[in-house]
């Protein structure tokens, strides 16, 4: 049962240094042996630990995070949740995540603040309207809620857009998913952390993996900044640092790491009641519950591990934003940041056993990692528990780069969170 606090008690607790609050999850010293170890304390790693304990009954688990819980991409994104992808395999995996998100607050007994306000992909020409119609048809065939919007429909859900006849990117219509929306990124991480801890999972922060223990050609544990930890099952969910850890394990992944930048404005009164993405400007935008305008754009194509923005990218993103919403030129920016995303050649994730037996992968989500957290955790947990794929994760195995059965979702996931 969740304890309720009055405003006065919250103020008193803050002034007292928060000494009267119980931690939301345990932070024990690491043990020498576990039944499973998850590297990465972001959304995917925490969800994996939770589903391993809840679904598969494996609770002797450690989640190892080199920094703090949710300090990576989980806390550095634009929080969009959607499942409007093109290929059946992608629809299956993102659709699973979307359905789990819809029940996640109840599942975790923690409000993740899912707001299904809808999302519209704008079309800026007759040709884009034709492609949009084909996309909607494919989505509907695959069981995704999708609708083709006219310009009047777009005006109804986003009246602040630039509908001027001489606009550089005129609005002809768009592709609409009504179930799409946003969720609170840190709440997702905290909810999974608390629920996993309650099931017996050890969440160990400030614990960096420096090497893998390999015996008899199989992964048998890890060397960390807090000592040696042995296990026969390791899941790796470290997003943009996947290639770094893969190198420590002795293999190479088809991944490039880039900084995906975003920024937010000062809070203002409600003006944007949905999520809007423009392929023409490369910008996507929504308004948070606090009133901030949340703005994202295309990747900075210079490989980087810097979790910060830069002025050239900011200039490109803001110029695109002002083409879409001229009235936003009056706003003041509050902050800018970046998440380190792991981009794969076909813009689809990698889920499966690595070339090192005993080490399993959950990576390659690129810009789509946040929306996929519940599915990524569910599928990696299944692999760790059974050693086998299910039908949803099988197409995303690393072996597709050998067989050539790629799933090119660049159009669906290239820039949008």
Structure description:
The chain is an alpha/beta fold and 417 residues long. It has 2 domains: 28-110 and 185-253 and 346-413, FAD/NAD(P)-binding domain (3-Layer(bba) Sandwich); 119-179 and 256-343, 2-Layer Sandwich (D-Amino Acid Oxidase, Chain A, domain 2), CATH 3.30.9.10. The protein is 30% helix and 22% strand. The protein is built from 12 helices and 19 strands. It has an 8-stranded mixed β-sheet with strand order 5-6-4-14-15-16-13-17. β14 and β15 (283-287) form a beta hairpin. It is globular.
- CATH hierarchy: architecture of the largest domain: 3-Layer(bba) Sandwich
- Spell out the CATH superfamily of the largest domain: FAD/NAD(P)-binding domain
Kindly state the mean pLDDT as a whole number?
93
CATH class of the largest domain: Alpha Beta
How is the secondary structure organized here?
Blueprint: H1 7-15, E1 36-39, H2 43-56, E2 61-64, E3 80-81, H3 88-102, H4 104-108, E4 119-123, H5 126-141, E5 147-150, H6 151-157, E6 173-177, E7 181-182, H7 185-198, E8 202-204, E9 209-215, E10 218-224, E11 227-230, E12 234-236, H8 242-249, E13 256-265, E14 275-278, E15 283-287, E16 293-296, H9 311-324, E17 333-343, E18 350-353, E19 359-363, H10 373-386, H11 400-403, H12 410-413
Helix pairs in contact: 2-7, 2-10, 3-10
């Amino acid at each position: 049962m969740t304890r309720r606090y009055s405003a006065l008690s919250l103020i008193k607790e803050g002034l007292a240094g928060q000494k009267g609050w119980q931690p939301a999850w345990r932070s024990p010293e690491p043990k020498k042996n576990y039944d499973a170890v998850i590297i990465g304390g972001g959304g995917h790693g925490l969800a994996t630990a939770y589903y391993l304990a809840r679904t598969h009954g494996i609770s002797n688990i450690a989640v190892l995070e080199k920094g703090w819980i949710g300090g990576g991409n989980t806390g550095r994104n634009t929080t969009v949740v959607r499942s409007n992808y093109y290929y059946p395999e992608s629809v299956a995996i993102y659709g699973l995540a979307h359905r789990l998100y819809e029940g996640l607050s109840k599942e975790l007994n923690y409000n993740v603040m899912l707001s299904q306000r809808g999302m519209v992909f704008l079309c800026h020409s007759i040709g884009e309207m034709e492609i949009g119609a084909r996309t909607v048809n494919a989505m509907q065939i695959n069981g995704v809620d999708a609708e083709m919007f006219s310009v009047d429909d777009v005006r109804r859900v986003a009246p602040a857009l630039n509908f001027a006849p001489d606009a550089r990117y005129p609005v002809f219509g768009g592709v609409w998913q009504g179930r799409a929306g946003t969720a609170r990124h840190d709440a997702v991480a905290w909810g999974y952390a608390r629920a996993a801890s309650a099931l017996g999972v050890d969440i160990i922060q400030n614990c960096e993996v420096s090497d893998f223990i390999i015996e008899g050609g199989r992964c048998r544990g890890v060397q960390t900044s807090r000592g040696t930890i042995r296990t026969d099952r390791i899941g790796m969910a470290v997003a943009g640092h996947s290639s770094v850890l893969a190198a420590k394990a002795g293999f190479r992944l088809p991944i490039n790491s880039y900084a995906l930048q975003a920024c937010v404005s000062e809070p203002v009164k409600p003006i944007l009641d949905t999520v809007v993405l423009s392929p023409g400007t490369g910008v996507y935008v929504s308004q948070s519950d606090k009133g901030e305008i949340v703005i994202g754009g295309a990747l900075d194509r210079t490989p980087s591990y810097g979790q910060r923005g830069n002025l050239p990218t900011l200039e490109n993103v803001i110029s695109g934003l002002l083409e879409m919403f001229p009235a936003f030129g009056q706003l003041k920016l509050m902050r800018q940041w970046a998440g380190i995303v792991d981009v794969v050649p076909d813009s689809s994730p990698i889920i499966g056993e690595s070339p090192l037996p005993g080490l399993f992968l959950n990576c390659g989500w690129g810009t789509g990692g946040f929306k996929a957290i519940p599915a990524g955790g569910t599928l990696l947990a299944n692999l760790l528990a059974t050693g086998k794929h299910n039908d949803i994760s099988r197409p995303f195995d690393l072996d597709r780069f050998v067989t050539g059965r790629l799933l090119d979702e660049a159009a669906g996931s290239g820039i949008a969170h």
